[in-house]
Amino acid sequence: MAHRPKRTFRPRRADSSDSDGAQETFAEPGETGEQAARGPAVQGPPSGRGHAEVAELLRRDRGRRRGRAWASSRRAATAAPRLDGSSDVPVDIPDAVFIQATYGKCKLARAQEDYISLDVKHAFTNSGMKKNSEDSESEPDDFKDIMPFTPKPQTLRQRMAEETKTRNEETSDDSQDEKNQDIWEQQQMRKAVKITKGQDIDLSYSRESQTVKKFDASISFPPVSLEIIKKQLNTRLTLLQDTHRSHLREYEKYIQDIKSSKSTIQNLENSSNQALSFKFYKSMKIYVENLIDCLNEKIISIQEIESAMHALLLKQAMIFMKRRQDELKHESAYLQQLSCTPETSINNSLAIDEKTQWILEEVESRRARRRQARVLSGNCTHEEGTSSDDELSSADMTDFQKSQGDILQDHKKIFEDVHSDFCNIQNILLKFQQWREKFPDSYYEAFISLCIPKLLNPLIRFQLIDWNPLKFDSIGLKQMPWFTSIKEFIDCGMEDSKKEDSSDKKILSTVINKTVIPRLTGFVEFIWDPLSTTQTTSLITQCRMILEEHSTCENEVNKGKQDLLKSIVSRMKKAIEDDVFIPLYPKSAVESRTSPHSKFQERQFWSGLKLFGNILLWNELLPEDILQELGLGKLLNRYLIIALLNAIPGPDVVKKCSQIAAYLPEKWFQNSAMRTSIPQLENFIQFLLQAARKLSRNEIRDEVKEIILILVKIKALNQAESFIEEYHLDHLRSVIKEFE
């Protein structure tokens, strides 16, 4: 429904642009169209009473129109002035019949809710005019009582001339209001036609009332030239060309989209397994997300249990280390006191005895238990000082086992609420194996071989919590479930894959490098005791498997391997500095093998010799120069040779020298062209020659032969031949020829 535009309370001018000089006619019933058009137009001034009536009616009508908004929709027709500007313009003055009809129409509109009806044709009769005239006469004329506060009214001609003069100034303000008014009237007429469809309604009045706009020559327009027109046309053409080009670009884009869509549709139609692949990828995505969420939640518990187990083993290792150092310190102090004068011994006896008595008794009791155990086992060649001395008291052992049991109990609870598909390594690898078999291209393009070690890291650490590589009965990596599962996964991939350099081959080495080696390094740095042959042998076994058999990807394993080897070397250096102590006593104090000084010195020498042998066990894993520096340079030449020089030459010295030679790796002397031993053994060779000379003088031939065999074994052939020639030991030349 159209809204009625706002009315303007400005009376319309007779010569408005809407009328343009046209005159409104109202035809009574019975009149023809020509009569209606010609009837009210009266040329020239009327005469007599008619002229006075016309003037009076015009004055009344003008007074009423000032207070009605709807009155602007109908205008009295007046003649427009001539365009030539002449002042003698004839004016059409309406007659009494036309004015009376207009007044009656206005009254009817007031009675019908203050608007002019467009769907009723009113017929004006003489009786009606008389009645309306009587009604109008009976109404009070309020305007007659108005006091004249304005100048004397102008004549009709003067008013028309004044309005004509100011029309051009008001045209711009009134044109929009008149346009809205005309649009609203037309809408109301169209609605009236729709409502009264089927009825015979004469719309000739509304058609005749419409005016035709005429060009107003008084309105000024900007000057127009050919250049201005050309410029505007070029501007318009440029805009159209730009629009056309943008439309072309959009058109090309749409064409490409259509081609791409058709190609996608064709590919999807040709690929019958797209739905299955999508379903598989979606299920795999959900599975991996759930797996990651599970591992992220459990990794905290795994780290806590792992730290608790590591702390427990570290505590035990620190107990052994501190106990050994305390016992060494107190026993050495006790023997040193015994070497002092009796007066000094008596003065310090109370303080020393109270402090060392209990420790010495504990040490001796453990030694007695170990000797008894060796006798029962039939081991009679054991030397004092080569025992690890890692026994715990019953109370400490009970506490350790209880703590370890609690940790392992919590360890079992970590994945007890998890489905096997998310905590079993074999089931997890089976999912990825299905992916590799069904869609190998996407499997390798996604670099799954780099993701699997990260996914398995928490689960492998979970399985390694109760793994101690320093125990002689510890399970090897090859027997662990995660190792066998990964190995089978790699083997299946090598059979199915056509690629010789499949990336899945690196999974096992990456797992070892990222998971196993860091844990092994922690054991080496904090828990491993290099003086323990059992721990060293077990550790070497694990390291040999890790560093030799699974070094297929050297670029990745190299860093972890180097870190592990550095920690091993660093730990052995620390053991040489902290745990090796061979005291030197006067010969009078060590002449008797049963004296406390002699026993203590022997135990410390064999303890250092045991460390020497444990260091050289790494000969296949550590570089030769590092081993020679540690074993020969720092330990043999600095500690063992000095103790041998202080000893009395005899069978015991030869036995010790033979044990030193037995620990030396044969790999160092495999060169058949060698006639001189390695430089780091020069001091040892000189000691052997010195001992052989002393024994030759005493005619101890068996020990001399043993020394010659040691020289030959370590490739000191030139020194051995010189000694044989010097002492005319021709029967020993055959020994040299056997090794040549």
Automatic annotation (TrEMBL):
It comes from the Eukaryota. Residues 1-91, 127-180 are annotated as: Disordered. One of its GO terms (cellular component) is nucleus. Its main location: nucleus. One of its GO terms (molecular function) is DNA binding. Residues 50-60, 159-170 have a biased composition (Basic and acidic residues). One of its GO terms (biological process) is mRNA splicing, via spliceosome. This is GCF C-terminal domain-containing protein. Residues 69-82 have a biased composition (Low complexity). Residues 1-11 have a biased composition (Basic residues). It is found in: Nucleus. Keywords: Nucleus. InterPro entries: GCFC2-like, GCFC_dom.
